[in-house]
Design brief:
It is a single chain. With 320 residues, the chain is α/β, with parallel strands linked by helices. It has 2 domains: 1-91 and 172-246, 3-Layer(aba) Sandwich (Rossmann fold); 99-170, no CATH class. It is built from 10 helices and 12 strands. It has helices at 46-52, 81-87, 99-102, 109-120, 127-136, 142-145, 155-167, 185-202, 237-242, 247-254, and strands at residues 4-15, 18-30, 35-39, 62-71, 74-75, 92-96, 173-177, 205-210, 222-227, 230-236, 304-307, 310-312. The strands form 2 sheets. An 8-stranded mixed β-sheet has the order 6-7-8-3-9-10-12-11, sandwiched between helices. The protein has a 4-stranded antiparallel β-sheet with strand order 2-1-4-5, covered by helices on one side. The longest helix has 18 residues, at 185-202.
């Protein structure tokens, strides 16, 4: 049984009598010990999907308009407030981008980690366990650094503290939403190596949200590609990178700089992701698609399985 099973999820944002659909009929699964990457440009619905797993988006303005989110076999959308509090942290924990905006600037990092322990594992809420967690995420001299304030740490160290806080509750699923966006390239690689090592050592599942396909190859078991609130392709990572089926996936991969590839300028996808509530009829990628045909403008393609484990939302996918 999947640890996370999202089926036909739709999320609207409501303002007065108007509703705009940010996530439209999204389905994805994460199995125990698996790493699934959700990729796409900003505005594609990745973060809304991720936040919906623990119902972290206030309602209103959000409205969960349809579908189910089964987390450890229980439907999150039907949980009471008390049941949600029991799930948040204990079953699923989050690591967000820009750790400096997530950490409390006036509390020492050790105290912030200890607060997580007091909530979920009160018998372990002591300096010894805080030091163990800091050592787990490879922070040097943890006996000293637990007394630091966030401003005394680099961005990479702050992100490691955020990961330590997320791990304090011993979750089964770690949702990492753009965890490397605010970090330089060297630190990005260190954080991704850390996530890979933690999955191997702790056996937890990871849902990684990113707009960068360049970091997917070494980390993901499966990849879900989103565009304009919909899943447009899902595939094992290796197969997707070698043979992408959807034009949008091909364009994303082509935009990643490749060592040794000579070009005057990087490939780019023309235009922009359509705004929520202003999606075109037919295929939503049609206005930007280099392979579009006339019928793409009027016919909404269904997400269909074209090979075991490979799904694509396109009338004319790349041949297998």
């Amino acid at each position: 049984m999947p640890l996370l099973d999202i089926q036909h999820l739709s999320v609207d944002f409501v303002s007065g009598d108007n509703a705009a659909r940010a996530v439209d009929d999204v389905s994805l699964t994460v199995h125990p010990g698996e790493t699934v990457c959700v990729v796409g440009e900003s505005g594609c619905g990745k973060s809304v999907t991720a936040l919906s797993i623990a119902r972290l988006i206030p309602s209103p303005p959000a409205r969960y308009a349809g579908g189910t989110i089964l987390l450890n076999g229980k439907d999150v959308l039907r949980m009471t407030a008390a049941e949600l509090q029991a799930v948040r942290g204990a079953v699923v924990s989050y690591v967000f981008q820009e750790p400096g905006a997530s950490l409390n600037p006036v509390l020492r990092v050790g105290k912030q980690i200890r607060e997580m322990l007091q909530r979920h594992r009160p018998d372990k809420a002591d300096d010894e366990e805080v030091i163990r967690l800091l050592r787990l995420v490879q922070i040097p001299a943890p006996e000293t650094r637990l007394r630091d304030y966030p401003f005394q740490m680099s961005g990479g160290m702050q992100q490691r503290v955020m990961i330590a806080m997320a791990l304090a509750s011993e979750p089964r699923l770690l949702v990492a939403d753009e965890p490397t966006t605010a970090l330089d390239v060297t630190i990005q690689a260190q954080i991704l190596d850390l996530l890979r090592d933690l999955r191997r050592r702790l056996g937890m599942a990871i849902l990684l949200i990113t707009h960068n396909l360049g970091i997917v190859g070494d980390l993901a078991d499966r990849v879900v590609v989103m565009y304009a609130g919909q899943v447009v392709e899902e595939s094992p990572a290796e197969a997707l990178l070698k043979n992408p089926l959807h034009p949008y996936t091909r364009a994303l991969i082509a935009s990643v700089p490749q060592p040794g590839r000579e070009s005057e300028r990087l490939a780019a996808i023309p235009g922009n992701v359509p705004r929520i509530g202003n999606f075109p009829p037919g295929c939503r990628f049609y206005p930007r698609c280099p392979s579009a045909r006339p019928e793409c403008a009027t016919t909404m393609p269904e997400l269909r399985e074209v090979q075991p484990g490979r799904w694509v939302r396109c009338l004319y996918p790349e041949s297998l």
